Input
Amino acid sequence: MLAQSLWRAHQPAPFSNQPLPNEVDVVVVGGGIAGLTAAYLFKQGGKRVAVFEKDRIGSGETGNTTAHLTCVNDARISKVARQFGENTAQLVWRAGATAIDVIESNATERGIDCAFRRVPGFLCSAFFDEDSGDGPSALREDAELARRLGFATSFIEAGPITGRPAMRVADQALFNPMDYIAGLASVINGDGSFVFEDCEVGDVIDDPLAVIVNGENIVCRDLMIATHVPIVGKRNLLGATLFQTKLYPYSSYVLGARLSDDRVAPGLYWDTTDSYYYLRVHEDADGFYAIFGGEDHKTGQESDTESRFTHLTEAFQRLVPSAAIERRWSGQVIETSDGLPFIGEVSPHQFVATGFAGNGMTFGTIAGVMMHDAVLNVPNVWRDLFDPHRKVSTLGSLATVLTENVDYPFHFIADRLRQNTGAGVENVPRGSGKVLVVGDKRVAVHRRDDGEVVKVSAVCTHMGCLVRWNNAERTWDCPCHGSRFSPEGEVLGGPAEAPLEKVDD
Output
């Protein structure tokens, strides 16, 4: 079985090396859908823009997505309406619908062959346990509210796949995200604008605003941080750290399979359990293909990540027996206390976009639109709603903040009190990893398949929690704030910005 997302099977050609510019109007850090959408719109608006991606474009969560394009967000529309009012609920769904229109328009206008297709979406009663999740009355309430707010929704007594009640949402969509962002990048690159791969921003200077890349200063007027979990940038460390307490990273697991029949039509499907299962079916030249995901957990807080794939496989084969599973991968979603993303200005001329939950492709796209509007001083209806500085406005949201942030003190202290059993490098199997006490240090020890041992500090460089080995993905994951590192200690995902320290023998 391939341990790779479907989208990364055909990585776009790399962008050629080119000299760094001395100055641009806008610097975008991160080459995923949010950053490249913003950069594309900046260039269309007459701005000189430079995109810096530390790996390849789409190497972050855009390349790990399941590529649902929907206006249906994780926070149910009825819940959002009760919490914030119907106008807000309408705006949240309108963000997703607008994002789908933007992707379709960009792809059509630029001739980007990204397999964009309109399909229906279905929010279904629990796929497996009829007594779990929300029942028919809640789905009916959602469908009626959404229809009243202007969306093409309907309640179905016998929905697809399981024959149980569902809410149908028309005009959702599918696409290939890597082909799409590669198309955007090709338009951005050139005529005074740039897309740089394998090019990491080392630091940010405040006055004049500039980024340091490969030892060189690139001056800019505006800076957009589009890195899934925002880097510190030119904010002070305290402010950046406090912002992290609003972000809750969860790992999600995904399977890709070829279907031998057409029992499940192309479309998007979710159930109402928490955490929910999600299914995406599309048709290509070889027939029908399904992507199935779920089994979410707080990043770094599952001791046996391999079991998540096992459970997911069993559920997939039960739901779609014809699925011939050929690949698997995992991704990370960032939740917030109120279920809405953080998109906007966090300090003068510095913008962030994060907290997209399960709607990365649509909220990422609308983030690009919002960043363009903010820099060009164009009014935007979502500016206040998604403002990173908004207050926790309800008791429910406050409870979420308190519950989620108990992780840091708990794991910071508990992991240091936990004693090793059978400690010793010789007890680390090939292909695995363990945190061991070596002298007075906690050391993250990985034994490669060839038997070579790699040792790095087990102390996360973000806020000092101890990392844990992820046996399914072969990564070191932090249970406090979700940072992820390679076996060699290199940063795979923030908020950590520095690698784990090397440990000498």
